[in-house]
Amino acid sequence: MGDGTACIEDNCTNKPVKSGRGFCHKHYLAKLDDGSLPHVINRRVVEVAACSVAGCDERSRVKGYCRPHYHRWLSYGDPLWAPAPRGRSTCAEDGCDGIVNGRGLCSKHYIRLRKHGSTADPRRSPMERFNEQVDTSAGPEGCHLWTGASDPDGYGMFYTNRAHRATRWILGHQRGEPLAADEWALHHCDNPPCVNLAHLYVGDLVQNVADRVRRGRSGKRPPPTHCRNRHEYTLDNVYFESSKRQCKTCRTARNRRKVEKARQMRDAA
Questions:
Q1: Residue 13: how many CB atoms within 10 A of its CB?
Q2: For the chain, what is the radius of gyration of the CA atoms?
Q3: If we measure between CA atoms, which residue out of 78, 48, 72 comes closest to residue 60?
């Protein structure tokens, strides 16, 4: 043992480090690594008994117990006391296996109860939202017109997780699965905004083209009868340039503007 100026390890003359329990830096780290650091009081190594609890190898601190067992004895009167395991009870809502968070309900149903006063889902179903955008004032035999958003062709657009044509969505909802890519939603009434199931049927591209031909909407559009400035194409008002019809009235107006602009530039000079 040292006298206060040297390490307490036998045959070591190194200076002890502060808070090193009397050991020099080398021996303190070595004993700290191998777990053999002794209990030192007034620079004397004191043998400390192990915890009196069977199977516990920790050093005794107070009343023969290690720190954890002493606190259990102090709080509960028994150093071996342990809390009973908590059961994982499930939500009281039918069909829900979530872990209870409050009032016998899982987090989802508990939050619904606090916000809405009921554990039922407050969100409206897709069918409820669909029906809110349909005008059925024409009766069961008439066209049920879509009043929501529509595409440039006049067909209604319905949104769930993505955008759908209203006619395709309602037909898919009726049969329980969405329409395939090669299936078309066709009208008996030839009215694009109509979503009445009595007026709709599922077809294919061939049926769609045949339906268009039967209703006289196939082929090219008829040639225009007026120019962009609404001058009628008559025999006296038409000339051809690059095999295209041109309006004489518009040509005359352009030429007059050119002459007038040239006159104004000449006068300004």
A1: 10
A2: 46
A3: 48
β-pairing verdict for 39-41 and 238-241: unpaired
Please count the CA atoms within 13 angstroms of the CA of 246 that sit on its side-chain side. Answer: 12
pTM of the predicted model as reported, rounded to 2 decimal places? 0.42
Segment (H or E) for 157 = strand 157-159
pLDDT in tens, 209-239: 888 878 777 666 667 888 988 899 998 999 9
CB distance 157 to 165 below 8 Å:
yes
User: 109-130: buried (b, 16+ CB within 10 Å) or exposed (e) per residue?
Assistant: bbebbeeeeebeeeeeeeeeeb
Distance CA 67, CA 50 (A): 11
DSSP secondary structure string, 32-100?
A: HHHT-PPEEETTEEE--PBPSSTT--SBP-BTTB-HHHHHHHHHHS-TT--PPPPP-PBPSSTT--PBP
